[in-house]
Amino acid sequence: WPYGDICGIGPVGKGQGTEFSLTFRKGSGKKSETLKFSTEHRTELLTEALRFRTEFSEGKITGRRYNCYKHHWSDTRKPVNLEVTPGGIDQIDPHTNRVVCSYDYRNIEGFVEVSDYQGGFCIVYGGFGRLHLFASEHRDEIIRSAIEHAGNFIGIMLRLRREGLTFEDFVTERLGKYSSDESITSLAEFVVQKITTRHPEPVKRILALTETCLVERDPASYNIVTIKPFGEVFALICDVDNPQVFTVEFIRGQIRKYSSTERDSLLASLLDGVRASGNRDVCVKMAPTQRGQRWGLLSMPVDEEVESLHLRFLAAPPSGNFADAVFKFNANISYSGVLHAVTQDGLFSENKEKLINNAILALLAQEAELPAVNSELESHFQAIRRLVASKAGFQAFTQLPKSGQGSGLTDATFREKLGVKTVKALKRNNNGVTHAAIDMLCALMCPMHDDYDLRQEQLNKASLLSSKKFLENLLEKFITNVHHGTGALVISSLLDFLTFALCAPYSETTEGQQFDMLLEMVASNGRTLFKLFQHPSMAIVKGAGLVMKAVIEEGDKEIATKMQELALSEGALPRHLHTSLFTVSTDQRMLTNRQLSRHLVGLWTAENPVAMNLLKRIL
To answer: Domain DnaJ homologue subfamily C GRV2/DNAJC13 N-terminal: where (predicted)?
Structure first.
């Protein structure tokens, strides 16, 4: 239905339910018809639909506007207008008359009055108790009206909390459950320009990564402007045209755009932080997520049925457009892997393994020509990553195609085709494509699913590490990026690859001869590894340290001595000594790094008189 034919949309029944009704005009006459639907996601559906309400044929309702003050992060009061609308409360800039931001009812946790602040009330918002403080002489009316609108139009019950807050409470609890020191203490900071409609020009900010959050600070005062938990990050987008611009997409639909001269180092650190905090569904890509391609919310995985359909669409694209099917698949399937990947017992249950295998074959059948557009090629690898992160996909690597499947692919196996595709893709010399390909290889090196089979891991690894030429290809990418100071994401994914091959406990499944060969190749590029100890991304310093430790502990005497000499000539010893002695933190990651630095200092100074003399002079 065109929005112009819609008379109204709203919840059915009192309180939280799943039913809603849609009323629309039929033909040119006055007749209208009402249909009833039911969905688990009623709140979200109504909120999104009402954003178009001004185009509806009836109900071009404009709410009342109230003059207010907002207590700004800079500790000043700014005049704003608040408008109570059917879907949320809009904050409007009185000078330009533009909506600055909307507080959707679906994300409002409640209202609370601030007792010692005249006309003061807070909107408790965003799922973690974040407080936004406003003051207005119409306080009671605004809150009453918002509660009514939320009930009538969205079907949710909002409340004014019984106990008020004092202004001091607001100051200490403004960031909700992330107000504590560990949530706001930076582990890494980057200077960025924030690109936003609120400001005509980009604004300078410090983007800080903490243990659990992405924190935006004002460079002049170091005040916190905004905070977003890592668990709410959905995807990271690298702008293709501008090498400094990137976007962070969040599961509640917000999108934040920044530019930074150190974009790739920032993204490598951010990706590491988000994954370390337990959010495994995040990836870096070139094409923004098309919300209309996802059959459900960003904040929760799609249903099993949706997953199965999209697996089928890869094998037989409904529009005949394969590229489109891949983007849709990626928009619906979690990056951490197909969720419903194991066949359920039951009469009508589908064979999931077969669906996954067919999807893999479809992605590898597109062999003749790699897609010309880089973002499309990247999406192929990210789709394969989603498939091999599941048990069936992980096994398929050495088992597909099974003899007698007669799919016309008997000449080339999954492994060979993937090898060819990867080598061709690396020749593109595009960091986005390279990173996607290597992140996919990592999911084949180390199972990303539960209940895995060590034997399968050994087989996959043996097959990935079997070609010296292929490994030289990967290391070549590593060395050029390190020496040019580029491609932090590529470096970081290659360090993961090397970690899964060479570092304990992962190295237990690496075949002996292959282990020695790869170790030798890495050791002969020792200087490259040492360069990384000066890298701005903590994640990369840690990865380089783990690989270095393996090289010294597992290599022969000659290799170890060479590394000790390089530790001095490349200035790595003093830096790690500093980390070993002076890291004070409660964060597990920082403590792991300190432990690693101590270990490296020990390895570099053992039976090394030159280093011992240096330590003597330092201490």
So the answer is: 1-619
3-class DSSP state of 19: strand
Low-confidence ranges of the chain (pLDDT < 50): 403-411
Contact between 599 and 549 (Cβ < 8 Å): yes
Count of alpha carbons within 13 Å of 290, Cβ hemisphere only? 10
CB 27 within 8 A of CB 78: no
Instruction: Please write the tens of the pLDDT for every residue from 459-470.
Output: 999 999 999 999
| pLDDT number for residue 410 | 43
Burial class (CB in 10 A: 0-12, 13-18, 19+), 448: buried
β-bridge mates for residue 78, sequence order = 70
Asked whether 491 and 482 are in contact (CB, 8 A), the reply is yes
8 A C-beta contact, residue 431 and residue 487 = yes
**Tokens 């010296």 correspond to what residue?**
468
Three-state helix/strand/coil letters over 215-273: EEECCCCCCEEEEEEHHHEEEEEECCCCCCEEEEEECCCCEEEEECCCHHHHHHHHHHH
SS3 23: strand
Question: Which spans in 64-166 are helix H?
Answer: 139-149
- The closest alpha carbon to 227, from 235, 236, 218, belongs to 218
Beta bridge partners of 120: 135
- pLDDT at 409 (0 to 100): 44
Tokens of 425: 């893709």
Q: Which residues pair with 84 in a beta bridge?
A: 89
Name every residue whose Cβ is closer than 8 Å to that of residue 363 and which is 6 or more positions away in sequence. 314, 326, 380, 383, 384, 387
User: What angle (nearest 5°) sits at the alpha carbon of residue 540, between those of residues 539 and 544?
Assistant: 120
Q: Helices 352-365 & 304-315, crossing angle to 10 degrees?
A: 40
List 124's β-bridge partners, or say none.
110, 131
Residue 193: which of 244, 241, 249 has the closest Cα? 244
Strand partners, 10: 21
Cis peptide before 371 (omega within 30 of 0): no
- Could you give the residue ranges of the DSSP H alpha helices within 297-447? 304-315, 322-332, 352-365, 374-388, 391-399, 414-426, 431-445
Return phi, psi of residue 354, to 5°.
-65, -40
- The amino acid occupying position 617 is R
Q: Which two tokens stand for residue 374?
A: 């880089």
Residue 227 pairs in a beta bridge with 215
| Residue 411 pLDDT | 45
Closest CA to 70 of 136, 8, 118: 136
Residue 26's pLDDT is 85
**pLDDT tens per residue across span 566-582:** 999 988 999 899 999 99
Spatial contact of 530 and 482, defined as CB atoms under 8 Å apart: no
The widest CA-to-CA distance across the chain, in whole angstroms, is 96
**Exposed e or buried b for every residue in 404-429, given b needs 16+ CB within 10 A?**
eeeeebeeebbbebbbebbeebbebe
Prediction pTM value: 0.93
The contacts of residue 564 (CB under 8 Å, 6+ apart) are 603, 604, 605, 606, 608, 611
Say which amino acid occupies 420.
V
* pLDDT-above-90 percentage for the chain: 82
Q: Are β-strands 108-113 and 245-250 bridged in parallel, bridged antiparallel, or unpaired?
A: unpaired
Please report the pLDDT score of residue 236 as a whole number.
98
In sequence order, what are the residues at sequence separation of 6 or more whose Cβ sits closer than 8 angstroms to the Cβ of residue 45? Answer: 20, 39
